[in-house]
Write a structure and sequence with these properties.
Elements (H helix, E strand, L loop, with lengths): L2 H6 L17 H6 L1 H7 L6 E6 L2 E6 L2 H9 L3 E2 L3 H10 L9 H15 L8 H16 L4 E2 H17 L5 H24 L11 H27 L6 H6 L11 H32 L1 H15 L13 H13 L6 E5 L3 E3 L2 E3 L4 E4 L1 H4 L43 H18 E5 L4 E6 L3 E5 L1 E6 L1
Parallel strand pairs: 2-8
Antiparallel strand pairs: 1-2, 3-5, 4-12, 5-8, 6-7, 9-12, 10-11
The structure holds protoporphyrin IX containing FE.
Amino acid sequence: MTLESVRTATAEPPLAGGGLPLLGHGWKLARTPLDFLTGLRDHGDVVRLGLGPKTVYAVTAPELVGEVALSPDYIIAGPLWESLESLLGKEGVATANGPLHRRQRRTIQPAFRLDAIPGYGPVMEEEARALVERWRGLDVLDVTTESFRVATRIAARCLMRGSYMDERAERICADLAALFSGMYQRMVVPLGPLYRVPLPANREFNRALADLHLLVDEIVADRRASGQKPDDLLTALLEATDENGEPIGEQEIHDQVIAILTPGSETVGSMIMSLLLVLTEYPEHADKIRAEVKNVVGDRPVGFDDVRSLAYTGNVVVETLRLYPAVWILTRRAVTDTVLGGYRIPAGADIVYSPYALQRDPRSYRRAEVFDPDRWLPGASEEVPKYAMSPFSVGNRKCPSDHFSMAEMTLLTATMASAFTFEETRDSDPRHRIGITLRPKNLRLRPVSR
Ligand code: HEM
């Protein structure tokens, strides 16, 4: 951004309609966030929102979202991150900025490199097979519990190897489930001290948070006591040094473990739920996955090495990420006066954008609301404008785990679809549930063995 363009840009972005006196647009963002954010594109590429006394800038055009994600004028901050920071710590990679963030990314990146992923294959395969065995014994699946369970177990067992993880993975699952249900509320309705009132919901939230922190301390202490240094993310964190070559502090190690486990479980867990909904609601796509598995794999269980040959299954996963992106809202803060789409953005302004809204925009996608995995076939996918499909984000904050997650989700989808068909029970509620992530509200499925 040139200084000259910052000086000459004076126009304010248009104000979104429908704000209420005093409350502004906050009530819409709290009550019907997906419809509200999706509708903003009709007001402009950059739109002003009032959240109480605060002005927030919503970005609705893919090329401008790319500009925000790639520009050093914006950092990770804003209401989403502040609420996460207060719960999960300030020294983890997901909330740090500047040199600290760069150093932390250098430490964790090797664990997520493309050539590191096959090393996780055996754990992913083992967990996929255990899931099939477990589901064969269940009449009805509580899909929320089952999806978060397998996501947490895979993240914890791959990144922090060791048998001591098996029993703790269950505890991590239970704690994270309790925490995630309370987090979004704390983000959009920041009532501070009221969350300390000893109501049952607050007590459960605080218990889970305390246990999660305790668990992380136990995991770190056990690993140290074992004297072992397997080639994994936990070893990388324990051996990391700062800019002066000194070991990083205990608090940073602790916050880093939380900052990786938390998004790792919540996002993949939500996506597995959405993938199960897709397999249930679109049996024709589930049939095609089964045919692909039969053709590529035959009758043996799906293996990690099969994943790269399961092109159709992969496209179902990508299309599910497009229509049901687990990370449906992101925020940034401008660190300097800057210009976006010809509009002036003042230093300190909060920016918000929604992968959900961008990925359903008819200006970017033909038949945008239709679930069509074939739009990701080579030749067709080039039509999609740049940054109109970024479920893992782009730039220096891009999810380090994109390859890991794609391999995991493709393996699980192929395994689940070839072992079962699914029927929704009468008490199932597949509507969107909007929290820190987007997922079906309370999906309950009967697994019918094939
Ligand atoms: C960051 C999505 C799985 C760890 C992000 C961001 C997105 C995202 C959109 C960027 C946030 C931003 O731009 O502000 C997803 C999705 C996943 C997934 C859709 C699964 C389908 C995982 C897993 C892990 C993980 C499995 C770890 C095991 C992280 C971390 C960051 C991050 C540590 C922060 C990176 C940074 O700020 O430098 N993720 N994620 N994610 N994700 Fe993921």
